[in-house]
User: What shape does this take?
Amino acid sequence: MDFKRKEPRKKLIAFTPVYDLRHKTLLGYVADLTLQGAQVTGETVLEAGAQFILGIEFPKDLLGISTTRMVIPARVAWCRRDDSPQGYNVGFEFTEISDENKAIIEAVLARYQFHSALDISDLEP
Assistant: This one.
């Protein structure tokens, strides 16, 4: 797969389950997130190109956000086995993003993303 990422991935430190709302099943947990999509780690092999309506459950203590569940259409961009014997990493590309979902993602990233040593130096005390 040869492509350039438009936005750097942000790894999350919060426990964030992702559901397939059509089939009411847990797909896995968010490993990283951008406004364009998410990487989900789970135990299910998914076919590239498959379409989903994802339900992503964010922590309840997000400041300024009234909802903790984001419902968003997405397609599977890729699926690969991860380091564990039963695990898979799945790259989802969001196919539509509402202003509300954009605000939720931005709030989640601002509050819960990992900061590298370079990022920490930019933070104010």
